Amino acid sequence: MQAVLLAAALFAGVVPAVSHAAGAQAPPEGPGRSAAAPATDRPGSTVTDAAPAGSVIPGHYLVTLVRRADRGVVEEALRDQGGVPLRRFERAASGFVAALSPHAAAVLERDPRVARLEPDRVVVALQDTQVTATSGLDRVDQPRLPLTGSYQYTSDGTGVSAYVVDTGIRRDHIDFGGRVTAAGFDAFGGSAEDCNGHGTHVAGTIGGSQHGIAKKVQLVPVRVLDCNGSGSVSGILAGLDWVLQQQQPGRRAVVNMSLGSSVRSATLDDTVERLTAAGVLVVAAAGNTGTDACLGSPAGTPSAVTVGAVSALDDTRPAFSNTGSCVDVFAPGVSVLSAWHTGSTATATLSGTSMAAPHVAGAAALVLQRDPTTTPARLTQQLLERATTAVVRSAGTASPDRLLFSRDLVAPGTVSGLSAKPGLRQATLAWTPPGDGDLATITTRMASGTTPPASPSAGTEVPTTRTGATAGGLATGSDYAFSVFAVDGDRNTAVAQTTRLLGTRVSITPPATAVASGTTITVGGTVKQSGDGSPVAGQPVQLLVRQRGTTAWSIVTTVTSSSTGQIAASHRPAWNADYAVSYPGGGVRLGADSAVAAVAVRQTVSAVLDRTSTSLGGSASLSGSVSPAHAGQRVVLQRLVDGAWRDVASAALSSTSSYRFSIKPPSRGTFTYRVSRAADPDHAAGVSPTRTLQVL
């Protein structure tokens, strides 16, 4: 088999002990590591600084079992051959790492319970608006050059985890603001702190507050490379196995692998596919040998998003960046400034596809924040669809001409099925929201008249939910136009869906201002459109009534307007009443109420004189009743004197609301009487007919 080396030096800008392919250009040097910190990794590691990328680790094998094979039985058979199981995988692969002699390896490879046996190999690391942004950030937030000196973003990766499979992360670096998890994985038994710098640099580009794409993403260190940037396929598998164990349903996560090999590892490829199936997008660096990215893993893994490098200054691919059909997208990877491991404020400038990949991982975190239910396949599609095309210079044979664009300029879909239900001084809108996963909000705007607001900032805002809005306090008689805008996480706005409602005016024609108790009245009215005065025909219209002095209206009846918009309805009021004609609205017309018409109800007082004449000194009886009944209330007997009515006597009404007065005039002559009942809150005053008594 070919040797496989996954080395930090290969994918980063620092390249100790790395041989480049013939004609390939090595990445520019970054901060020197010639005085690297002493190795603090697990004693007895078989990986050395001198091991070239892809070298076989002598005596170490990756054992993949067939489905349902008993791992314990296979391990026992392995021990019978003098082999030693070194590390089990729980989820990354169905198998384990073992130390085997060549003879034991040959025996185990023939075991029907073993699906695949491959040598373990050396891996190494591959090398709101932010002002004064780094050139990489500056480049990916705009489709085309020149650079603007700023980085625009509307999302920050909140709620998303980024697993940095690398040399660890310096947790206390100021660029991370405490967002590096205390928990992590260390293939060498340490704390996942970075003693190399590569992982810290990568993490800074993914999620640094100053240097990062996703400034609030949670960073998770997965240390699989040592202080010299070297590791093994088995160590990477162990790290990815740990990632799979951490992954829970609904957890939004992306894995960055700025490391790789010069040949393919089927086991590593399978593990990347398992991560993808578990809902985690894997972003991989293409490699820095200037060759075909398809030759190595994980760059050649089909489900990984493989990233080549360009210069942010002119979009040119450097000679060191790998190419080919396995490259999915390019990103800035030349002279990238980011965090460094030597101090809590240290920075370094590196070049390599290792620096390009975290730009894409950070952009993926932004999409995951806005669209938390998206799948890795859909996420990949979104990243590639929004990438800028026709800008990469010297992309290389079979490479895509796509450059990462971190913002989304594609508007979401529009709302559908927009309907408007008119009412009295209000309108209720309903719709079905678009299915876009990154839909951020729906905004409803309103304007008087028939011209809908043209933008989400025009007109008046209407309180809105995801599926509807209610506009209240509308002026009676006015037309209104509404616009509904769907807005995504990048503030892209869909074409507005609009609707209009027409104002109406309602008049009332009362029969009189006062009527006698017991009288049936007919109230008339008209309903017309406000704009052109055309009649509102064939619509239900209500006659409303309330007792004067109260606020609660009740519906007397509902009638249908005529072809001329007129209505007429009858009612017999029992007390002083207020009337109104109400059109509740319908179709495209808003409702309206008429003015209030007051109708007083006079009390009816009857009067019966038991005789029309009497002799001097005689008497007569005047009796009657009051309707409606007012038992216990007083009535007044009045006599006409010199053209004016004067009170003569008063009496309380009986339980049947009747009264009786005895009349005894003091002299001969003609006397005229009546009985008066004063007004009260419910009724107008009432007087009886006059009665005349002649005294002989």
Description:
The protein is mostly beta strands and 696 residues long. It folds into four domains: 408 residues, 3-Layer(aba) Sandwich (Rossmann fold); 85 residues, Immunoglobulins (Immunoglobulin-like), CATH 2.60.40.10; 99 residues, SoxY domain (Immunoglobulin-like), CATH 2.60.40; 92 residues, Sandwich (Immunoglobulin-like), CATH 2.60.40. The protein has nine helices and 46 strands. 49% of the residues are buried.
What's the topology here?
Elements: E1 5-6, H1 8-11, E2 56-65, H2 71-80, E3 84-89, E4 95-99, H3 102-109, E5 114-125, E6 129-131, H4 135-140, E7 150-152, E8 160-166, E9 185-186, H5 198-207, E10 218-223, E11 230-232, H6 233-246, E12 252-257, E13 259-260, H7 266-277, E14 281-285, E15 305-310, E16 329-332, E17 336-339, E18 347-350, H8 353-370, H9 376-386, E19 388-389, E20 402-403, E21 416-422, E22 427-432, E23 439-448, E24 460-462, E25 468-471, E26 480-488, E27 497-501, E28 504-509, E29 514-516, E30 521-529, E31 540-547, E32 554-560, E33 566-571, E34 577-583, E35 592-593, E36 597-602, E37 604-605, E38 608-609, E39 613-614, E40 620-627, E41 634-641, E42 644-652, E43 658-663, E44 669-677, E45 686-687, E46 691-695
Parallel strand pairs: 1-5, 8-10, 8-12, 9-10, 12-14, 14-15, 15-16, 29-36, 39-46
Antiparallel strand pairs: 2-4, 2-5, 3-4, 5-11, 5-13, 6-7, 17-18, 19-20, 21-22, 22-25, 23-24, 23-26, 26-27, 28-30, 30-33, 31-32, 31-34, 34-35, 34-36, 37-40, 38-40, 40-43, 41-42, 41-44, 44-45, 44-46
Helix pairs in contact: 5-8, 6-7, 8-9
